[in-house]
């Protein structure tokens, strides 16, 4: 039986708390260090960096497998695809993100180009994991049309004005994280972080703006209970 926490001096509960705080909120490593110190936990910010690199992908993978195994946790009604510009080492990269109509992040990939090949890679991943949706909302980037023509789903594309505001607004939390981290220095780091962040975001997404306070508190309690079960 593997013991991933065997050689760590701190308890798994502290490690999971640090990872959760760093990924869920737009905090820097030093901010998390200060917040933990107020709770009587004295650790270095480089230790937190080690923890999230080591245990973040594992926790995200558990959440992803659990959600995909239950079809009710995602929707094939409408997907929203959009890309955002990201500077890495002074060079422009593109972060492609896909959401369903409820705001669940389905997939993220980082590429150096905004061409047909990149759009095709994203769509192939989505179709393999979730099947074919009823509608795919995109902007008027020709790469989407070319990729969908090759996959035989061009009839599902929807490019009406304002319809993709959900995807464009969903980039705002990422921009706050990018500012807190003072930018990303490697393409691999960006891909790793966005993949982990997407799963944590989906898990704690209580749709606060759609439900009343009482229902939101129930959603939040259920999310924390399941989080403790996954990290047990």
Can you describe this structure?
There is one protein chain. The chain is of the alpha/beta class and 232 residues long. Helix content is 53%, strand content 14%. The radius of gyration is 19 Å and the shape is globular. It has 2 domains: 71 residues; 131 residues, Nucleotidyltransferase, domain 5. Strands 3-2-1-4-5 form a 5-stranded mixed β-sheet, sandwiched between helices. The mean pLDDT is 88.
Rg over CA atoms, rounded to whole Å, is 19 Å
Main sheet specs: 5 strands, mixed
Distance between the termini: 15 Å
Question: What is the CATH level 1 assignment of the largest domain?
Answer: Alpha Beta
- In the CATH scheme, what's the topology name of the largest domain? Nucleotidyltransferase, domain 5
What is the string of helix and strand elements? HHHEEEHEHEHHHH
Helix/strand-derived category reads alpha/beta
Q: Provide the CATH architecture of the largest domain.
A: 2-Layer Sandwich
Shape: globular
According to DSSP, the number of beta strands is: 5
Under CATH, the homologous superfamily of the largest domain reads Ribonuclease H-like superfamily/Ribonuclease H
Our count of helices gives 9
**Relative strand content:** 5-15%
In terms of per-residue confidence, which ranges show pLDDT below 50 for 5 or more consecutive residues? none
How many domain units?
Answer: 2
Widest β-sheet, arrangement of strands: 3-2-1-4-5
Helix content: 40-55%
Average pLDDT, rounded to a whole number, is 88
